[in-house]
Task: structure prediction
Amino acid sequence: MIDPELDLTLQRIIRAPRQRIWDAWTKPEQLAKWWTPSPTVTRVERLEPRPGGALVTQMSDDGDTFVPHMDAVFLVVDDHERLVFTNAIDSSWRPAEPAPVPMTAEITLCEHPDGTEYSVVVRHGNPSDREQHHDLGFYDGWGSVTAALAALVENEGSR
Result:
């Protein structure tokens, strides 16, 4: 259930099969290509797409100096359909105080006549965290990485 006071959402039709999108989420070399907004560079430290598995990335604005970006754990992994992860628990299963806000993200992939319906729900614990995430540019950030994801998987078919 989506709560507009606590959740931020994004939906897009991606003109590619679910398998390509799933691979872009679950293969480190592919996730690194789109996970942070350009021109920032991503390094995937750990990607274990299974319940309890790690999602740890670093980012760099210059391509040389990397800083922590995401240290999260997968909660749900339904192959080719749904990924749920949270940064409120870190990859060593310890309670975390992530910056800028704690969140749980749910990514769902559904068949669509034009490819895949890609849906994101980012849940927050309180309205203040939701508002802060919104004000920090949720739609620009998640929108730009979703566009990069779409470009990656849509262009795979033309190779």
The longest strand covers residues 67-78. Residues 138-156 form the longest helix (19 residues). Helices lie at 18-26, 28-34, 127-135, 138-156. The two ends are 39 Å apart (CA to CA).
